Every structure is written in C-alpha cells, then in structure tokens.
Amino acid sequence: MQTYVTTTPFGRRPLSLGFVASQVTAKAIPEGAIVNKWAVFQHIREARELLGATDRSLAILNALLSFHRETELSAEGELIVWPSNEQLSARANGISPATLRRHLAVLVECGLIIRRDSPNGKRFARKDRQGEVEQAYGFDLSPIVARSEEFRNAAEAVQAEKKAYRLVKERLTLLRRDIVKMIDAGIEEKVPGNWGRALQNYQAIIARLPRTAPRQVLEDIASDLQGLNAEIREILESHAKSQNMNANESHSDRHKQNSNPDLQSESENGSRIKTEASGNVEQTHNLRSLPGRDLPLGIVLDACPNLRALTPDGEIRHWREFLAAAETARTMLGVSPSAWKEAQVALGEQQAAITLAAIYQRAEQINSAGGYLRNLTDRAKEGKFSTWPMIMALLRAKLDAGNANPASHELPRENGGGLQVSEALLKSLKRPRNW
C-alpha cells in the first residue's frame, strides 16, 4: 500500500518558505544517523536564544519527545508522534490550549518540528495487521536528528560566549579594585603623581559602563581600564624602585615623598590650623542651639558650588552623587584615605562629605586640607564641631559678595535662581562665626 507524506499544513495555516526549508532539512538526514533525544534537547535548551525558541515552547518540545518511546532517534525509525492536545497539555504541566497552539507554532517556525497534518487535521496513526505503523499524522521529529550537529555547535558557541562574558566581568571587577586601591596607596604613601587626574580618568571610564551591556562594550571598557591600570602601576613601581635605590645608597630607613610639593603635610602648620579651626562652644554660639535636622542638599550646593565641576555632567541631583563628588574632591585635595576614614567615622558619611565640600570650596585659603580635616574631626569627637556654622559662613560670604537685598529673603544661585531663606536664617548669616 502506497502512502503519501503531506507537505502542507491543515486548514487556514499558510505554507511558508521556512516550512519548506524545514522539510528539505529533514530529508537530508545522514544515513544511519542515531542521536540521543535528551542530549539533543539539552543542546537545544542551551542554544534556545539563537534558535528563537522560548521556555514554554521547549516545555512542549520536551513533552513531544516523551511521546516517542525510544531514547534514541534514528533515520530509519518512526519519527512522528501524534498526541492529542489534552495529552500534550497534561505532559506540559497543564498549559492552556491557546498557549499550547501558540508555542507549537513557535516550534514549527524555529524548524524544530514539522507538522504532518491529516486530511481532517486530526492526529492519529494507521497500523497494519502486525501492529506496525503504516501512516502517521502528527508532529515529525526529523529535524531533531537532521540538525543535531547544528544544535551541538550552537550550544558550544553559547557556552563559549557565556564564559567570555563571565571572564570580562571578572576582569572588570579586578581592574576596578586594583585601580582604586593603587590610587589610594599613591596618596597615602605620597607618591609623586597627579592622582586627582587619575581618579577623574577612572570615573570617566566607569561612567560609560551601563547597567546591562553586551560583551564587546565590556571588552572596550576593560581595555581602557587596563591602560590606566598600567600607567598607575608603572608610577608606583618606579617610585618603589627609586626608594629601594636610595635606601641602598644611604643605608638609612625608607622615607616617603610628598606627592605635591605645594601641599604641606598634615602635621605641618598645626598651630595655624588650630587657630583657624579652634573655638569653644561660646564662639560658635552654642552648637546645641543649632538646628537638629540635617542640612538640605540645595543649601549645601549653594554654599559649595565648586563641587559640581567634579561630576561628569556638572550636576548633583541627590546625595549619592554628592558623596561621589566628595570622594573625587578628597583625592584632588590630597587628603589621605586614613584621614578621610577617620572623618567619616566621627562625623558620619554625609556630614564628612559636607565638611570636605566646604574645605574644597575654600581650597585656595587652606594650605593643608588633610590637616584641617583631621583637626575638625578631633573637634567633632569632642562635640565642638557642626557643619551648620561652616555652611552658614560660606553662604554669608556669598551673600556679602553678591550684595543681596535682605528684604528679598533670597541668596543668589549659580544657575540664576534664588534660594528662599527665612528672616531668622538671614539674621544668623550676619553673625560672625569661626569654623
């Protein structure tokens, strides 16, 4: 009895070139080919994004494979399965009929299965007297055998890409850690070098890193970080070698060099710094009488506008960006990590950043920013320092410079707007204060 293999779908489903291409591929099964259906399914699952398959469609494919009794699929064996929608849905974790039809279409479009529809669209098999299948209508699994090698190669490509992505992420993490710690070491050890510029270059590179990025973008950023890492490492290694040579020549203890000849050490001019930053409770008009709430970010930025220049876009919109800008200012001022850490512990992270922003605003008037910060930290530990008088003093100086009209109750802003202040705050700004 001669049987006929249908090549077109039932009903209103159109015949597409992709459908024809899948049938051509299915006919090209190598003679004697035998594959393990679950091994091939694993390759398909790993390469599903390349193939265009979805998680739901793979659940249905898994169910279809389970209807084939043999673990191995061969070119000479029967490769058509004919489960009903109810049976298929049950094995696909109770998927709804509409979802089932939609994802069966996905499997056909991906070329993972071929429809062999009967004249009336039903799925069944006609058997002979010996129980052998003469004609079957349902889903043809021939592409699983014909494309098994393709699926394996695709899975290996996906695994290679995942490994490359994981490696570049690890490389980025290590480079970021090394660069930050080497910059801190250069500042702490007072190694000659423009560490502020190095930190700015680092932040400019990191600013290009999106939340999610393809591997090539990460490779480009890692390459730039690698170059910066090499430059910083060369500076540190050259300094270490010169120190070793000097130590061998003089047979003396190793010494540290100042990273900035114009920047005095934190221990120098201690008496002058104490004169500037000292003051008892009475001189600051009793710190306990200052407002108990935190300084608003807008007032701090009005008092310390120079900090905006340290951000990539020249704007600071929230405290997180303010803290990042303060970290940059810390490096540019030459404040050591130990002094900065001590200030953060004594004042709190946000108050320490405000203090540093004020110091950065008056950088031209302060010879040793690190020593100044340490002195303010010591006063904070004794309960004799608050950021309120410091910020108010800067606002008062800005008010005097701008010849603002007290009746307007406004302070000039860098962007041309005005900061609304109360009458009490204006009176407070007119008092002379030391910080």
Topology readout:
Blueprint: H1 17-27, E1 34-36, H2 37-46, H3 48-51, H4 55-66, E2 72-74, E3 80-81, H5 85-91, H6 97-109, E4 114-116, E5 124-127, E6 133-140, H7 142-146, H8 148-188, H9 195-206, H10 215-250, H11 270-277, H12 297-303, H13 319-333, H14 337-347, H15 349-361, H16 369-381, H17 387-402, E7 410-412, E8 418-420, H18 423-430
Antiparallel strand pairs: 1-2, 3-6, 4-6, 5-6, 7-8
Describe this structure in words.
About 14% of the residues have low confidence. The longest helix is centred in the middle third of the chain and has 41 residues. By secondary structure, this protein is an alpha+beta fold. The protein has three domains: 130 residues, Arc Repressor Mutant, subunit A, CATH 1.10.10; 87 residues, no CATH class; 161 residues, no CATH class. Helix 8 runs parallel beside helix 10 and helix 15 packs parallel to helix 17. It has 18 helices and eight strands. The radius of gyration is 37 Å and the shape is elongated.
Order of helices and strands: HEHHHEEHHEEEHHHHHHHHHHHEEH
Mean pLDDT across all amino acids: 79
Strand content: 5-15%
Could you tell me the number of beta strands? Answer: 8
- Overall number of domains: 3
Q: What does the main sheet amount to?
A: 4 strands, antiparallel
Q: Based on helices, strands and strand pairing, what is the structural class?
A: alpha+beta
Helix content: 55-70%
Instruction: Compute the number of helices.
Output: 18
Shape: elongated
* Rg result: 37 Å
Please report the distance between the alpha carbons of the first and last residues.
Answer: 105 Å
Spans of 5+ residues with little confidence (pLDDT < 50)? Answer: 251-290, 404-422
